[in-house]
């Protein structure tokens, strides 16, 4: 475990200690610190990370696609990526539904009148609109608004065009390579502030949630946490061992910096620069594969969020004394899997997706108020699961492409198809 990971873990521990202990002892003191120290420090750190997300995703994806050169290889990697993400989504959702149905974390009337807590669910976007909106009308506007699917689509077009033109755009390709190096160096600078940002973010989140919210929803939280941990270490561990030919210990050790940072940031997009850096430098994933798989995964792969949605839906159904049929559970799996496509990897997005899932099985969306008080805490852990799934696939695709000779051991594209 490297020094950065250790420092971030220390920051998380101290932040959790302050967030849980200080408010009961001195609420006014915590409120002052949260307003003038924790919240500003956390926001600054998050802004520093988000500052490089769009340019890094765009430059790295363009470079990755242009370096591949072979359209067949790009199509093959795309099919592998989507198929893997869909498969792991189904696995994670099935595990969550089974665990929640067996443990039964919710009881009728468990939280009494708190079920009426106000929650205004955001309108969901129809799946066909999502597919149409993948193509940007204005790429610059898409970058300004951080529309990740549209950014990825535009980067794919630019990368393919550069691959076709070859040496004619050699100067442009050099610019993209150097710009990508600059972004990665900025990430290194920003990570020096990571332990302090992690401390501030966790202290603020736990301090605002409080012991009462945590205690009343302990069964729900433990169920979600248990499934997330099982999926993270057992399911992903087995997948990376059998399909990626890599020791799970080596994988988790190498990817630990990104996992710990994801825990504090609660945003797949925000932690993406460090995720790619860890995969390339610690796991040996080529820049081409990392630059293609991980940005795409940050947008469409949300196993951790799916686990929360499945457990939360069963929990809410149990609170309202509603039995979910097998058909309704299959609808949950289908809806949650499709909802993850094109949903921004930002903090709290799981609530929007959950509203879609609840609506699909006839449960009231206002019931989200039951769990929203502790969602920020669970959001941290499920984001770690989300980005780890992206790295697992990056390892698998990288090994697969090197085995068939499409990418050499140094990560350079070959003519093999």
Model description:
It is a single chain. The protein is globular, with a radius of gyration of 21 Å. α2 packs across α11, α9 packs antiparallel against α10 and α9 runs parallel beside α16. The longest helix has 42 residues, at 27-68. The chain has a single domain (3-403), classed as Sodium:dicarboxylate symporter (Proton glutamate symport protein), CATH 1.10.3860.10. It is 77% helix and 0% strand. The chain has helices at residues 3-25, 27-68, 71-103, 127-132, 139-144, 148-165, 170-191, 194-216, 218-242, 248-265, 268-282, 287-300, 303-319, 326-339, 349-360, 372-403.
- Estimate nothing, just give the exact number of structural domains: 1
User: Under CATH, the topology is which?
Assistant: Proton glutamate symport protein
Radius of gyration: 21 Å
CATH top level assignment: Mainly Alpha
Instruction: Assign the CATH architecture.
Output: Orthogonal Bundle
How many separate helices?
Answer: 16
Strand content: under 5%
Q: How many angstroms does the end-to-end distance come to?
A: 38 Å
What's the helix-strand series?
A: HHHHHHHHHHHHHHHH
Question: In terms of structural class, how would the helical and strand content be classed?
Answer: mainly alpha
Envelope shape: globular
